[in-house]
């Protein structure tokens, strides 16, 4: 079975840091682009960051300079290091694996940033 397991969320004060992890199994992890998305209450899901199979990285403007995405294919894991967190970063964070038209989603992990 294909699984994407996101973890690392929690409650943190503004200015703090968290590191999210997304572990994949049941598919050839190395071949997939892995993205982090988030959804705040009452808002649409938005893409936060993505790392391609070849290592290219993209970031939403709102997180550039604060978040860093990386991958460790030996561990089938993608990380999202989130620094200088803001209350507006509060959301459920989801990871996504994409290869062509194939998309897999993991369950979310809650990130709450208090002011």
What descriptors fit this protein?
seven-stranded mixed beta sheet; 115 residues; globular; mainly beta; four-stranded antiparallel beta sheet; 56% strand
Account of the protein in words:
This protein has 115 residues and is mainly beta. Helices cover 0% and strands 56% of the residues. The protein contains no helices and 11 strands. Strands 2, 4, 5, 6, 9, 10 and 11 form a 7-stranded mixed beta sheet that branches. The protein has a 4-stranded antiparallel beta sheet with strand order 1-3-8-7, with no helix packed on it.
Q: What is this entry, summarized?
A:
With 115 residues, this protein is mostly beta strands. It is built from no helices and eleven strands.
Fold topology:
Layout: E1 3-7, E2 10-13, E3 18-25, E4 33-39, E5 46-51, E6 57-59, E7 67-72, E8 77-82, E9 91-99, E10 102-105, E11 109-114
Parallel strand pairs: 2-11
Antiparallel strand pairs: 1-3, 3-8, 4-5, 4-9, 5-6, 7-8, 9-10, 9-11
The coarse overall form would be: globular
Order of helices and strands: EEEEEEEEEEE
Q: Average pLDDT value?
A: 97
Beta-strand residue fraction? over 45%
> Regions with pLDDT < 50 over 5+ consecutive residues?
none
What separation lies between the terminal Cα atoms? 40 Å
Helix content: under 10%
Total strand count, please? Answer: 11
């Amino acid at each position: 079975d294909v699984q994407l397991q996101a973890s690392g969320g929690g409650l943190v004060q503004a200015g703090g840091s968290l590191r999210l992890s997304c572990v994949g199994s049941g598919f050839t992890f190395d071949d997939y682009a892995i993205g982090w998305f988030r959804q705040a209450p009452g808002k649409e899901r938005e893409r936060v960051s993505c790392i391609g199979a070849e290592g290219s990285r993209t970031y939403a403007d709102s997180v550039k300079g604060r978040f860093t995405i990386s991958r460790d294919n030996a561990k089938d894991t993608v990380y999202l290091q989130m620094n200088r967190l803001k209350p507006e970063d509060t959301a459920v964070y989801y990871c996504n694996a994409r290869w062509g038209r194939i998309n897999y989603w993991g369950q979310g992990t809650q990130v709450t940033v208090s002011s």
